[in-house]
Design goal:
Order of helices and strands: EEEEHHHHEEHH
Largest sheet: 2 strands, antiparallel
Structural class: alpha+beta
Helix content: 40-55%
Distance between the termini: 105 Å
Number of domains: 2
Shape: rod-shaped
Radius of gyration: 36 Å
């Protein structure tokens, strides 16, 4: 490799540091516009932007080796040669571990958001029950204080009749929300595994509707 001395001069004409500039670059630095000063070396293996990007894409797993080669502008055979290098494979594994940790972190955050959403919906059903129980237009209706009755107006001949029925749909929604929260927390058990104590809240809900409905 041949080289020559070249002197840099700043804007004021003052001589700057003297250094050697190579007339030719090593083959490994001829691709693209990569700057060899930014490479970090390990023996005869060096890292550059393209190799780092290839390691990330291999770890990600969404692209084939052919697609990765096209993406970074190298031949498929070059990717295959890199995959034979322990340094390259170690970096791929590092990126995979990073991806797993990030996926776990996001998964936990998503779970908390889902639980918060289910809890908010459940609290919404509590508001419906409280407002129904305090509705003055339903005063005196048996079971109205439970907040679990639905009023419907039906016309029979020339008469308009008010009917009241137990809101099973609301109870079903509440039970489903409880189930969703329990599943997210890993506390849900199938019926074959559930004991009588696990169904206590459901029985209380049913008893609440029935018993209160008998009060004058």
């Amino acid at each position: 490799m041949t080289s020559k001395n070249r002197t840099l001069v700043n804007g004021k004409g003052t001589p700057a540091l003297r250094f050697k500039v190579s007339r030719t670059k090593p083959n490994c630095f001829r691709h693209g516009t990569e700057r060899w000063k930014r490479h970090w070396h390990r023996g005869d293996w060096f890292w550059n932007r393209m190799r780092e990007e290839a390691a990330i894409l291999v770890a990600d797993g969404d692209l084939s080796y052919e697609q990765i080669a096209v993406r970074i502008g190298y031949a498929r055979q070059t990717i295959a040669e890199w995959l034979k290098r322990p340094e390259f494979n170690q970096r791929v594994e590092q990126h995979r571990e990073d991806f797993k940790r990030e996926a776990t972190r996001r998964g936990i955050a998503d779970k908390f958001r889902r639980i918060a959403s289910y809890q908010s919906d459940y609290e919404g059903t509590e508001v419906i029950i409280r407002e129904r129980s305090a509705d003055p237009t339903m005063a005196g209706v048996p079971g109205a204080r439970s907040g679990l009755l639905v009023r419907a107006v039906k016309r029979i001949g020339a008469q308009t009749v008010e009917l009241y029925r137990f809101d099973a749909a609301l109870i079903g929604t509440r039970n489903e929300l409880r189930k969703q929260i329990a599943q997210e927390l890993g506390q849900w058990k199938e019926k074959s595994e559930v004991g009588s104590s696990d169904r206590l809240s459901e029985l209380i809900e049913i008893a609440r509707a029935g018993a209160v409905g008998l009060q004058p």
